[in-house]
Write a structure and sequence with these properties.
Shape: elongated
Oligomer: single chain
Number of helices: 21
Number of strands: 5
Distance between the termini: 42 Å
């Protein structure tokens, strides 16, 4: 539809998402203006910040000279404009007009004087630049790190590390060394460089997934100047050893994260920077925040998101806590992506100097590609991946079951069987394509649904639910095989594996003494007594590492998986290195 509009009409569109993808049709109709920070501008800003912190008198002199040079150049252009104006206004011969000739002489004298001043200031500026140039290699390192952080965006939607984050890291490093005495400027620069790499790894590493931490750290070693190559590396243990040899044993390449949550809350984030805790489905980390708040005696208000009531409560808590200096935690925000984009991000961006210095906001979410980029860019992100292995998975699931459900030994034993089945199904996902032919989306919700199914089938047995031989085993097996877990499986081979697991576990023999959960020589034996306390004791005695044979795989499955992980790390390194080289050359 055509609409009449005024010739004076203008429309300005803006976005705070530097990674936004504009369609060719839109690009052809607008004039694009890019205000994002470039590597060159960040290098210049870093140099200025370093000189200002380490040599404040030199930076003042440099700024003063830049100001004088600017004023002198403006004055020179004004004189040139005046001269051209007089010439253009002259009628007849210029030499016949004495006023023009006299005015030209005055302007030429003033111009000569200004040019002399510019030449002198240039000489002084050269001396200042020579002194500042000692910090130039450090600024180049800052540029390379920033380019690397920008390139990480190609690995995951989670990896948004804006220039503001890097600048805050740099300022933190400079502040720590501002009052320190060094034997020479070279020694100062070496110390700054070492501390910068440590702080970048600690602050950025916590926002990366496990394998990507290794990719980032090795590429960071190359930025530092090390000749690091993965040629000949066969296992992830070799990669970790390489990182340790390059940076040292205590280098925080895995990030300063949940184990240092109090330090992160106090020093790394501020009242206007939320801490976004992203975790795998079913891995709830909100308890860590609540525990920390109790230890530090902080007032923490929590609200579960996903409903209109939660939105209203969250708005009220943010408004009051930001003034009082309390803490707020918004749980499971992946359930309200639109509210994040339309409300929360705007509120966070509106927080300013009036915000109480002790105010903190914590946000928990599942790893979800629908999370707004704008939220990721203004947040400090911790990626909290669930520990791998059978034992951690069983502990998570069994701890999530309400104590009220453990009403009888028979029911408790079925719950323990289900916990083992769910853990084995989840653990096999680590070994795709050996464990499963594809990465199925098995979740904690499947196991919770299975609990309800077992309870429902047991209720239908009446008094017979206490006799293992009279339990509805066929109904339990078929429901788990075809409905709860089997409903996500698309391969006949995988269906056969699931059927075998369920049939081996959910049988009346599981109530026999010394029942082995896995038919292998070192397989664990179920406890005789299945009260909730005895079940938890049995789980606690399970080894931290469980061999692949416990989930029906060959003994060498771990080695094969390790080789695939190393290959994936190498592919990612090549991808990011090419991106960094392209950005650096451009």
């Amino acid at each position: 539809e055509e609409v009449d509009y005024s010739p004076k009409f203008n429309i300005i569109l803006s976005t705070k998402n530097p990674a936004v993808q504009l369609t060719p049709d839109l690009c052809s109709r607008v004039t694009l203006v890019n205000f994002t920070v470039t590597p060159d501008s960040l290098e210049s800003q870093s140099l200025s910040n370093v000189v200002k912190a380490m040599k404040p008198e030199l930076e003042k002199q440099r700024e003063s000279l830049l100001k004088i040079q600017g004023e002198q150049n403006v004055k020179l252009r004004e004189l040139e404009d005046q001269m051209l104006s007089k010439i253009s206004a002259c009628e007849g011969s210029i030499l016949d007009d004495d006023r023009v000739v006299d005015g030209m002489e005055v302007l030429m004298k003033e111009g000569g004087h200004v040019e002399e001043q510019i030449a002198k200031s240039n000489e002084v500026m050269q001396q200042v630049d020579q002194a500042v140039g000692k910090f130039q290699p450090f600024a180049v390192v800052c540029r390379k790190i920033f380019v690397l952080l920008e390139a990480l965006r190609d690995l995951s939607f989670l990896y948004e590390f804006p220039a503001k984050l890097f600048t805050s890291i740099l300022e933190c490093v400079l502040e720590r060394h501002a009052e320190t005495e060094f034997s020479s400027e070279d020694a100062r620069i070496v110390a700054l460089k070492e501390d910068l790499f440590r702080e970048v790894s600690a602050r950025v590493g916590r926002g990366l997934q496990v394998d990507d931490k290794k990719v980032f750290t090795i590429l960071l070693a190359r930025v530092k100047g090390g000749d690091v190559s993965l040629d000949g590396v066969e296992t992830t243990t070799d990669i970790v050893s390489m990182i340790t040899n390059t940076f040292g044993a205590n280098y925080p390449w895995e990030g300063r994260a949940l184990n240092d949550l109090a330090s992160v809350a106090e020093f790394d984030i501020g009242p206007t920077v939320p801490l976004l805790l992203c975790s795998a489905p079913g891995h709830d980390v909100s308890g860590r925040v609540e525990s920390m708040a109790r230890e530090l005696k902080k007032g923490l208000s929590s609200v579960a998101m996903g409903s209109p009531e939660g939105f209203t409560t969250a708005d009220s808590l943010l408004a009051s806590a930001s003034k009082r200096g309390d803490w707020v935690m918004l749980k499971n925000v992946h359930l309200c992506v639109e509210w994040l984009r339309e409300n929360l991000v705007k509120k966070l961006q509106g927080l300013g100097r009036g915000t109480h210095k002790d105010f903190r906001i914590f946000i928990t979410s599942e790893i979800n590609p629908k999370l707004p980029t704008s939220l990721l860019r203004i947040s400090d992100v911790i990626v909290a991946e669930a520990p791998t292995g059978l034992k951690p998975s069983i502990v998570r699931f069994f701890s999530s079951i309400s104590k009220d459900r453990f009403s009888s030994p028979v029911r408790n034993r079925l719950y323990l069987l289900l916990a083992w089945l769910h853990a084995a199904i989840q653990e096999r996902l680590r070994f795709v394509p050996q464990g499963w032919t594809e990465k199925y989306e098995f979740t904690e919700a499947d196991a919770t649904h299975a609990l309800d199914v077992i309870d429902s089938l047991l209720e239908g047995c009446g008094r017979d639910q206490q006799d293992p031989d009279k339990l509805p085993w066929d109904a339990i097996r078929k429901t788990l095989q075809l409905g709860v877990f089997g409903g996500r499986i698309t391969s006949q081979v995988d269906q056969g594996v699931l059927d075998a697991f369920v049939s081996a576990l959910f049988t009346s023999k599981s109530f026999d003494l010394d029942f082995k959960v896995v038919d292998v020589p070192d397989g664990p034996v179920f406890p005789d007594n299945t009260t909730r306390e005895k079940c938890m004791e049995w789980i606690d005695r399970l080894p931290v590492y469980s061999p692949p044979t416990w989930i029906g795989l060959d003994a060498d499955a771990e080695e094969e998986r390790d080789k695939r992980v190393v290959e994936l790390i190498q592919m990612k390194m090549i991808q990011i290195q090419e991106k960094c080289d392209t950005d650096s050359s451009s």
